[in-house]
């Protein structure tokens, strides 16, 4: 099963757990979330961006970690993944990695961390970054290490 399909199954499970049909989602969101689009996310026919996934998790009233495959998110900030992304090396990878770079920038803004050279990655961050690249988190970690972008803290 692909990562996109697994995310889709989790989206479906959360929606059903809330007692909502696809049409209910469209109606309750005043058309912001179209039934056809949500259905295509749930079937894995359409990739969902990290931003849209976060917005949909908020709409459903769940933590993004409930939608993202993998282990449960860390419960405390001190249980961080312990990984650091070299942002300068990430920039050098080119266009295929720009979405990941933009998301890293949004994390920096949210944290007020503007050193611009490295970014500490937390469990939830890693799962979101993996969604952006459409791979499981462990595969993303391995690939970033191979490219010299990810290092242990």
TrEMBL record:
GO biological process, one term: negative regulation of DNA-templated transcription
Gene3D superfamilies: 1.10.10.1930, lambda repressor-like DNA-binding domains
Alphabetical list of InterPro entries matching this protein: BldD-like_C_sf, BldD_C, Cro/C1-type_HTH, Lambda_DNA-bd_dom_sf
One annotated GO molecular function: DNA binding
Superkingdom of source: Bacteria
Spans through the membrane: none
Residues covered by the HTH cro/C1-type domain: 11-67
Protein name, as recorded: Transcriptional regulator
Organism: Egicoccus halophilus
């Amino acid at each position: 099963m692909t990562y996109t399909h697994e995310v889709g199954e989790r989206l479906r499970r959360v929606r059903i757990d809330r007692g909502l049909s696809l049409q209910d989602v469209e109606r309750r969101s005043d058309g912001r979330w179209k039934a056809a689009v949500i259905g295509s996310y749930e079937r894995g026919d359409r990739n969902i961006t990290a931003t849209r996934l976060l917005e949909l998790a908020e709409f459903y009233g769940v933590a993004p970690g409930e939608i993202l495959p993998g282990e449960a998110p860390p419960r405390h900030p001190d249980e961080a993944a312990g990984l650091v992304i070299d942002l300068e090396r990430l920039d050098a990878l080119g266009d295929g990695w720009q979405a990941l770079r933009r998301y890293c920038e949004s994390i920096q803004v949210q944290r007020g961390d503007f050193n611009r050279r490295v970014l500490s990655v937390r469990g939830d961050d890693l799962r979101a970054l993996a969604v952006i690249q459409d791979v499981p988190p462990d595969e993303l970690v391995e690939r970033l290490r191979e490219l010299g972008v990810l290092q242990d803290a």
